[in-house]
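Replying to the earlier thread about multi-chain prediction with a worked example.

Input:
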Amino acid sequence: MVEEKEITVNIKKYDGKNDPYWKTYKVRADRYTQMTEVLRRIKTEQDPALAYRASCHMAVCGSCAMKINGFPRLACRTMAFDVMDENNEINLEAMDYYKGIRDLIPDIDTFYDRMYKVMPRLYADESVIAGENEQRMTPSEQKEVWKFQECIWCGLCVSACPSVRMDEKFLGPAAHAKGYRFIADGRDTKTEERINILMDSAWRCTSCYMCYEVCPQDVQPVIAIKKTKSYLNEYKGNTEVTEMARKHDDTVFDLINNTGKIKESTLYLKTFGFGEAIKDINYMRKEGKLKYALAKDNDVKNIDEIKKIMGDKK
Amino acid sequence: MKVAYYPGCASHGIAKDVDIATQLIAKDLNLELVEVEDWNCCGGGFMDDKSEEIHTALNLRNLNKVKNMGYDKMATPCSVCLNSHRIAADKYEKDPELRENVDERLGRANIKYEGGVDSEHFIWVLIQDVGIDNIKSHVKKPLTGIKVGTYYGCQLLRPSSVMGFEPAHNPHSVMDLVAATGATPVAFPMKAACCGFPLMGSNPDVGLKMANNIFTNAKGNGAEMLVHPCSLCHLQLDATQLKIMDRFNQKWTMPTLYITQLIGLSFGYTPEQLGLGKIATNYLRSRGF
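Result:
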């Protein structure tokens, strides 16, 4: 006999017009009860007006994304007993960032808009479409795209991303994972166009690993963004963001290659230019940090090792 | 106890005070920090934007040095260095193709990576090996009554599948250490948000906005000071704090300390001995320290 417990579920209700409010429900559950099942019990037994989305109950459709105890998760992949606190209580809210429709249902149209901006499908060669050639992919290419094509469009990463909230030019984690997935796919014919769409946006990511953390499919969008950034030399465009990124990126590389370490003062000068660097040094002086800014650390003694490691592949 | 110690470039540069305070309290706690021989920059957060293979190889060179020194653990005061070494070791283990490339690169320098070294944050060592009770027993000047915002940032916590020390959405390490000093820890909603430092080399306007949000959120929740666990957060939130306050027309400042600086204060060290900046020093003077 599996032990049942009565759990308390607080749900943030919203009618689409008035301020949201919290409503409390008591439900029985055992250690096999998913949060989507908890919601089904509440809706069928207590509150037919409760609004939430859930279709597949097996982490494939991505529709039950919500905040559970403040953390973005899929309800179907979350067991009630794993998340309830010492008082057997659980809080449910709609995802952050998106406009609310009703209760736990957000309007994720803006998520789809982001995805469509990166042309989320394969553009095959004409000869393949005409049936004259086979569509081939090497095992190594397949491995490279595998993780990034597992996205289920649930919207959790975008809801949790700080850059999305603060920078409208950032396409968001999911779109980047999708975009890179086709850059790395040798069958696709739009690589240059994709790099043009993605490059400026990639350098607007703050690498905080929030998307990696919240993704229920382990897509690791931030890694896709980092891989996209490594195509910077193939990018022919130039924006304010990519121009600064180029200077910074190259200086970091040269400093490590030549000294084995990052020298902040050199990095400042080369990235921001003399004028901006002086302004920052003045701020540091006011905070009493100038003595550290001018200090010099030892270079790596065995610098040849570093040069060999960083050199081009033989 | 002896631990291999990886200071990282920032704490030997503009964030030198992170290193100063860490060395001071380590001595009091009988932790001998043995610097990793001829260590190189981990390239954390930047080098993997250019090449995953080079980034991984550079980090494994450091871990191999630690192994050759006879240690199985490397402690660093910097969350970015921590994240960088752990991610590199994780990728190397899980990705056979990357491993092949990295082995070839290391081979050019006659390095054979053997594994068996765990990178840990200095505060993990404080909590797991030194112990909170032991730290409390060294407190000579409890920071009673000071409300300290406990900030974690991103790299210490995420991805939790690789970092592993505590739950990313409900961390407690910094809070536990602040409580040990006698100060009152203040949790605030943005405690695990990014400070914006990684954007300073490409999109500084948004990077500065992120830092301002941390200050405003901590202050709004009653914090009078802020502590953090990262040398690069230190550059962003302490060394160039006045730039952020100017940019957003804030008429106040937020004294920001690295976690070992706060512990050092409770151990009886002066702000000068701990290398504190002027904002924190002036504030602490006004509070009688």
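The CA atoms of residues 196 and 214 of chain A lie 28 Å apart.

Feel free to reuse this layout for your own posts.
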